[in-house]
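User: Some background: our group keeps a shared notebook of sequences we're curious about, and every so often someone picks one and asks for a predicted structure to add to the entry. Today it's my turn. The entry only has the sequence so far, pasted here. Could you supply the structure so I can complete it?
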Amino acid sequence: MLKFTFLTLLILSNTQLQAQIRKPSSEMTCIDGSVRILESGQLKDFKEKFCYSLKENIFVSDNCIKGDCGVLKKFLAKDFKGYDFFSPYSSPGFKLCDELGLKATVVTYVLPNSKTFKSDMCTDSSDDSFINTNTLGEKALEKVK
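Assistant: Of course. Here's the predicted structure to add to the notebook entry:
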């Protein structure tokens, strides 16, 4: 019975992450915007389709909103332990990206009217998907065994 309850909670947690990422468009704003990252020692701008909620500090690539992205697939397949987040050399978010086999990067999201928001994100180069580390970190802590 305990195994069934834990499995049910784990499935609900995964469903909640997908639901949080794929919020109705009234709660998330989706744009053809740009992201600015530091690459090879220089700031570079990349055109990206992404969705965001400043209220909940969520930034996610367009393909993750549609529910089919490498970041989500890797996240949902991973079982987490508390030590997965510890690193004496980097932030917990960067450590989480590393545990998932993703690339962590500091980013500036360029929003409409040239407003900017600085954060960091995990990216999957296989499909150019990304989710900010804060969102992944919160949900990963819920999955800790």
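Suggested note for the entry: The helical segments are 2-21, 62-65, 70-77, 92-99, 133-143. Confidence is low (pLDDT under 50) at residues 1-14.
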